[in-house]
Amino acid sequence: MPRLSSLEDLERLYATQGKLNYGEGVTQIDHALQCAALAEADGAAPSLVIAALLHDVGHLFEAEADVASFEVDDRHQSTGADSLRGLFGEAVCGPIALHVAAKRYLCRVEAGYHAALSPASQSSLKLQGGPFDAAQAAAFERLPHWREAVSLRRYDDSGKRDETCNRAFADYLPQMRELLIDQAKT
Questions:
Q1: Computed over its alpha carbons, how large is the radius of gyration of the chain?
Q2: Beta-carbon contacts of residue 130 (< 8 Å; ≥ 6 apart)
Q3: Best exposed site among 30, 40, 175, 177 by fewest CB in 10 Å?
């Protein structure tokens, strides 16, 4: 299991792997920055802004072709959240771990949500178990951070525009430093 031990590791990972595409017509870094900017514009808490920025970090540990193949569920939400747990608390990692479940949840509870998903998200949904049934949706609503995960999912869905964001990864480093579990790890 990959584990990031510092913000420098995280920054280096995005610098080297962020230019990868994952089937959405946008690079990983552009998607991350768009999602964080959407969270900021929405007035989200700093922890949710950083969760939006880092929610797909699990994809960065894989080959580009594997991420975009949609042949197997890579469980990037778990890989990503687990890789960040040494740096950030559950206010950041919890929504990241649940953002795929939030997609499945929204497909169950919101009419038209599934049809509005990008083709890549619809393909990955099949691998991720499809829409929740009623019992799964009810169980999801009992989890900590489920509401934040739903908000994160909406930023994720909207952050796939074929354009470059006017923000840089480094712009978020001060917020990330404030959210570190152990300030000595900076």
A1: 15
A2: 104, 107
A3: 177
- Between residues 110 and 24, which one has the greater pLDDT? 110
pTM above the 0.85 mark?
yes
Report d(CA 141, CA 148) in Å as an integer: 11
Chain centroid to CA 122: how far? 16
Domain carrying residue 66: 10-176
Half-sphere exposure of 52 (CA within 13 A, CB side): 33
Residue 37 is part of a domain; what is its CATH number? 1.10.3210.10
Residue 44, phi-psi category: left (phi > 0), alpha (psi -120 to 50), beta (remainder): beta
Give how many domains the chain has, as a whole number: 1
How many other C-beta atoms are found inside a 10 Å radius of the C-beta of residue 5? 11
Residue 185 covered by a domain = no
